Amino acid sequence: METAEPSNATGVTEAVSANLSSTSLPVEVEVAPLSGRMSRFARNSAANVFRLVVTSLIGILLPAYLTHHLPVATYGAWVLVLQLGAYVGYLDFGVQTAIAKYIAEFEARQDFEGCGRCASAGFMIILAASALGILLTGVLAWRVPELFRNMPPDLQVGARYAIVLVGVSLSISLAASVFSAIFLGLQRYEIPMLTTVATRLLYASAVGIAVATHSSLVVMGAAVAAANVVGAALQVGLWKRLAAHIEINLRAIDFTMLRRMLGYCGVLTIWSMCMLFITGIDVTVVGHYAFGEVAFYSIAAAPTTLILTVIGALLGPLLPAASALSVERSPQEMGAILLRTTRYSTLILLVTGLPLMMAGYELLRLWVGRDYAQHSIRFLQILLLANILRNLCGPYATMVVALSRQRVATVPAITEAVVNLSSSIWLAWHYGAMGVALGTLIGSAVSVAMLFGISMDYTQVNFAIPRLRLLAGGIVRPASMAVPSALLLPMWWRTGPPSLTPALWIGWAISTGLLAWFVGLSRGERALLKQVTTKRMTFALRRA
Asked: In this structure, how many other beta carbons lie within 10 angstroms of the beta carbon of residue 465?
C-alpha cells in the first residue's frame, strides 16, 4: 500500500447544478499560445508523469506480492505501520509549497540571494517539524495497544518497533525535502523525480527481500527506514552538486522572510491538518473499529491513491508556473487558464476512475485474488466516487495557493475535515469499514459545495471567470463522458463481477471515448492534440 498524501479538498453545489439546465455553455476565451514558461510546465509535467509511472508500478506490484505472501492480519498490521508512519508527512506545514512558490518568484527576477533566504527560512521551520515528527512517532508507537485493541498481541510488539523505524526515517526525509523543494521552485522537476524513483525502487526491493526471507514486521520497518535515509542523502547530494548557488545558512536567517513564510504556511498548516482527517486517518479508524477489514479497505484505497497521484503529478508544476504567470497575466487570462486546466483535470479523473469503477472486481481479482476482490470492491467504488468528486476543483485549489489566496478555501477544508471525521467515526461504529468509506463520500460533497458556494466569491479578482461558466465548461462538459457508465449502473454496481456482455463493454468504451473526445475537448484542443501526437510519432519514426 502506498502511504496517503494530502490532496486539495473540493466540491459542487446543487443550486448551480439546477440553474445549469437553463443556461447554455458559454464560448471560451482562448489563451495565448504556450510560452516558454508553459513549455517548461509541460516538461515538468512529463517528468512527474514518468515518476508516476514508476511509483505506480511499484504501488501495483508490491501489494500484490505482499497479499500473496503475508497472512491477512499481518498485512493489515503492516498497512497500519505505514499509515501511522506517514503522519509525519503531514507535519510539512506547507513549507515545501512555500519554498517552491517563493523561489519561483525570486528566480524569475534573477534574485538568487532571495532564493537562499527563502530556502534557509524554510529549512529552519522544517527542522522543527522533523523533531516534532520523531516525538509523534514515539507517542503513536507507545499507544498501539489502545489504538488497535483487536490486533493480535504478537503483531502489536512488532508493529511498535516498525512504527518507530519508519516514522523516524520519514522525519529525516522530511528535513531533506527542503532540497527537493528548491528544485521544484527552479522548475527542474526532473531532479526530484530521480530521487523519488530511486528511493521507491530501493524501498520496494528492500521490503520484497524482507518478506521473501519470512522476516518480521521489525525487519520490514528497518528496510523501509534504510530506503528513506538513503533517499534523504541523495536529495542533499544533488542539491550540493546542482543547486549550491541557492545557499542554505541557518546562521544568517532573514527573520522578515521567516515571518513571511510562517504567515504563508499558517493556512497551509490548517489545510494539512484537515487533509489528515480527510484522507490520512481513514485506515486508522478502520483499524480501531474493525481491524479484520483493514487489509481489504487498504487494497481498495490503493487504486484511489493512484488516481490522486496522477492528478498530483500533472498539477504539481502548476503551482510555481501559476505563481510566475500571475505576475504577467490578467485576471481574465488566469481565469481562462483555470477553466482549461479544470477541464483537463476532470477528463483525467474520469478516464482513470470510470474503468476502475466498472471493472473494479475483475481488476482486483487479477491483482490480489478473488477473496480480496470480494471484500474490497464496494469500498473501492465508494472511495473512487468520493475522491473524483473531491478533486474536481483540484486546479482551483492549486492556483489559489499559488496566488497566496489559500485563506479563502480554509473554511471548506475545515468543514470537510469535521464532517468527514465525525461521520466516519459514527458510521464506523455502526457499519465498520463501510461507514468510513461513506463518511469520506459525505465530506467530499460538502467540501465541493462550499468551494463553489463560498470561496469562489472571494477570488474573482484573481480569476475573472463566473462560477457557472467554470462549472459548465470545466466540469459538466467533460463529465458527459460518464453518461454511458451511469446508464449501465445496475450491471456493474455489484459486490461480484459485473454482468455486462462483451458487446456492452465495447459499446461502453466507444461511447465513453467519443464523448470525451468530441464533447470534453474543444475543436482547437483536438487539433492541438492531433498536431502534437503527429509530431511525436514522426520524430519517433525518424529516430527508429
From this structure: 26
Three-class DSSP labels, 61-113: HHHHHHHHHCCHHHHHHHHHHHHHHHHHHHHHCCHHHHHHHHHHHHHHCCCHH
d(CA 440, CA 67): 25
- Other residues' Cβ atoms within 10 Å of the Cβ of residue 61: 13
| Cβ pair 435, 424 in contact under 8 A | yes
In the numeric block, which cell numbers belong to residue 135? 516525538
pTM assigned to the model: 0.78
Element (H, E) at 297: helix 294-315
125-180 pLDDT tens trace: 999 999 999 999 999 999 999 999 899 999 999 999 999 999 999 999 999 999 98
Do residues 258 and 121 touch, judged by C-beta distance below 8 A? yes
Alpha carbon distances (Å) from 269 to 99, 159, 287, 416, 423: 14, 28, 26, 15, 23
Phi, psi of 493 (to 5 degrees): -85, 75
Give φ, ψ of 365 to 5 degrees: -65, -45
Contact (CB, 8 A) for 462 and 331 = yes
Give dist(CA 176, CA 303) in Å, integer: 28
The answer to whether residue 20 scores a pLDDT higher than 70 is: no
Q: Where does the pLDDT of residue 2 fall: very low under 50, low under 70, confident under 90, or very high at 90 and above?
A: very low
Rounded distance between C-alpha atoms, residue 470 and residue 83, angstroms? 36
Looking at per-residue pLDDT, the higher value among 311 and 399 belongs to 399
Task: Write the CB contacts of 448 (distance below 8 Å, at least 6 apart in sequence).
Answer: 10, 11, 12, 13, 389, 390, 392, 393
Give 358-371 pLDDT, tens digit per residue.
999 999 999 999 99
Torsion of CA 138, 266, 462, 396, to 10 degrees: 20
Neighbours of 241 (CB within 10 A): 9
Q: What is the pLDDT of residue 191?
A: 86
Mean of the pLDDT values across residues 45-50?
71
